[in-house]
Amino acid sequence: MRKILLATAVVASAFAIAAPAIAAPAPFTLSSTAFKNNGNIPDKYSCAQDHKPGNDISPPLAWDAGDLKAQSFALVFIDTANGGKHWAAWDIPATAKALPEGLKKGYDVPDFPGTHQKAMGKADVAEQFFGPCPRNKHKYEFTLYALKVAKLPGLNKNSKVADVEAAAKKASLGTAKLVGFSTAAP
């Protein structure tokens, strides 16, 4: 019996050695040089920087799509404490790997052909990053969607951040998140 168990173990280990190694898929990641995941979002990117909500400075964001074959990207920024949908950018070209600090104002994002943005608020406040302004500690999430389409269908200047989020979820190949906390007040 002992010889049979030993022989079985030898055969099993031979198969384990002969099996080719399968590489793990490269991860889809989102990061910022302004704050670490689960860190504090600096006041510079919130209502505290100019003492009023909206029209805030967007943080620098960078990503690696890993093995995903994205045709474009969409980015949504929400306050998880109250479900507030602060800002979205979409139709970001598949060749893009980052968004710089301080995206300029406009539904059509200047310097990023084809990319659109929308924020909570009205008028020109709705066309630029709308940062944290919770007054007490809230958790915020940037969610980056790798998309199977080059352009998200059904969206326009009248769309809301929630519309962008719903469309991105439908066309998603995968997501990456960056979490931050803020206590900013105007």
Describe the structure.
This protein has 186 residues and is of the alpha+beta class. 15% of the residues lie in helices and 29% in strands. It has one domain: PEBP-like (Phosphatidylethanolamine-binding Protein), CATH 3.90.280. It starts with a helix and ends with a strand. The chain is built from two helices and nine strands, in the order H-E-E-E-E-E-E-E-E-H-E. The strands form two sheets. Strands 2-9-8-4-5-7 form a six-stranded mixed β-sheet, covered by helices on one side. A three-stranded antiparallel β-sheet has the order 1-3-6, with no helix packed on it.
Q: Secondary-structure map with pairings?
A:
Elements: H1 2-18, E1 29-31, E2 39-40, E3 61-64, E4 72-79, E5 84-93, E6 98-99, E7 116-119, E8 138-147, H2 161-170, E9 172-182
Parallel strand pairs: 2-9
Antiparallel strand pairs: 1-3, 3-6, 4-5, 4-8, 5-7, 8-9
Kindly identify the CATH topology: Phosphatidylethanolamine-binding Protein
**Overall number of domains:** 1
- CATH homology-level superfamily: PEBP-like
The succession of helices and strands, N to C, reads HEEEEEEEEHE
Number of helices: 2
How are the strands ordered across the major sheet?
A: 2-9-8-4-5-7
Task: Please summarize the sheet with the most strands.
Answer: 6 strands, mixed
Distance between the termini: 78 Å
At the first level of CATH, the class is Alpha Beta
Protein name: YbhB/YbcL family Raf kinase inhibitor-like protein
Keywords: Signal
Pfam family, one: PBP
Organism: Lentzea tibetensis
